[in-house]
Amino acid sequence: MILLSVAWHSLLSRKKTAILTFISLTISIVVLLSIEHIRLQAKESFNRTISGVDLIVGAPSGQLNLLLYSIFRMGSPANNIKYTSFTMLEKRQLVDWAIPISLGDSHRGFRVIGTNNSYFTHYRYGKKQSLKFEHGGKFSSLFDVVIGADVAKELNYNLGDEIIIAHGIGNTSFTKHEQTAFVVSGILASTGTPVDKSVHVSLGAIEAIHLPPSALKKWLINPEKTPPVPKSITAVMLKLKSKLSTFGLQREINNYPTDRLMAVLPGVAMTELWSLMATVENLLRAIAVLVLISSLFGLTTMLLASMNERQTEIAVLRMLGASPVTLLLLILLEAVILVSLAIIMSIVVLTLALYSLEAWLAAEFGLFLSDDIFTMELMWLISMIFIATLIVPLLPGIAAYKHALHAQLSSH
Predict the structure, then answer these.
(1) Which of 167, 263, 297, 341 has the most CB atoms less than 10 A away?
(2) Assessment of whether the complete model's pTM goes beyond 0.90
(3) Where does the ABC3 transporter permease C-terminal domain start and stop, copy by copy (predicted)?
């Protein structure tokens, strides 16, 4: 405790330099912890996009491609599968529920998803959270549309508004289905997933708007007719009654004789997707570590620069009986005090920033960042900072040790 008190008062005697070093360390540690926290949250965000789906079925095009276009609305499907394949899967004894997905259209840059009401009943994200309606409800008529939270906010849509769907997935399309306007029947609550940026319509409506103009005109004259049955869809999400049957059904689907099908496990495809991002992840980590190393060297420089100023202090401590090892420990203790205070301040600053910006980040950017930063990974990172703190100040500590030894020899 005496040595701690001496180290603290020694830092106070060099207040300006110590404060500047403390600020530099705090900024570096905030950057390091922020990057690591965002990296972990981004990974969790990817994993929370879908929950409870055992198999995704689509046309053979690679498991990553199938995952990207069916779940993340990224890229384009290579081919469709027969609608009869969906009905076959839906009726299987092993299947608990099945959600059809049909892609290919858009509305002002937002992807249009053709599906049925089972999507709103069974789709899960995060920790098995179900979709909730902020306003309105599911499809009740053929040309009803349910929009995600981001679509409603960015385009300022409300219940009852009419929208026109365009062919293709670009922001600009020359082929619009202007004969069939959709009416907003429901607006989903925000989920932080691609669902927020999706426009959901029924499969029958998708089939209707793609009818030849003459057939569509006849059909619109008598809208009470049974909705057209789709001929093909893009993908199917399956939930099985027992996970034990997953691999067996996957093998059966991959060998299905009447259609070219491919079934993938979402977890395996998600792992492959994350492994592709490992380079960016490591780059972010390297930048953060370099920032921290530069600050620790700044700490070393501060301690070394103060050696000349502290010759009198060291001489007094030697006269009071402090050994060279004690002086070495004193230097290390000063570094530990500065880094400990910087870590505490960094945690406080980061937690307050995340707490105050949490709602804004979710509303403006769809980023759901938790203000709880106390994860095992971050605790491990803080431990590594402490270990580095014990190594980096060794240089000024050894300088103080040698100076004390030299003073001791000179006295003899």
Answers:
(1) 263
(2) no
(3) 286-408
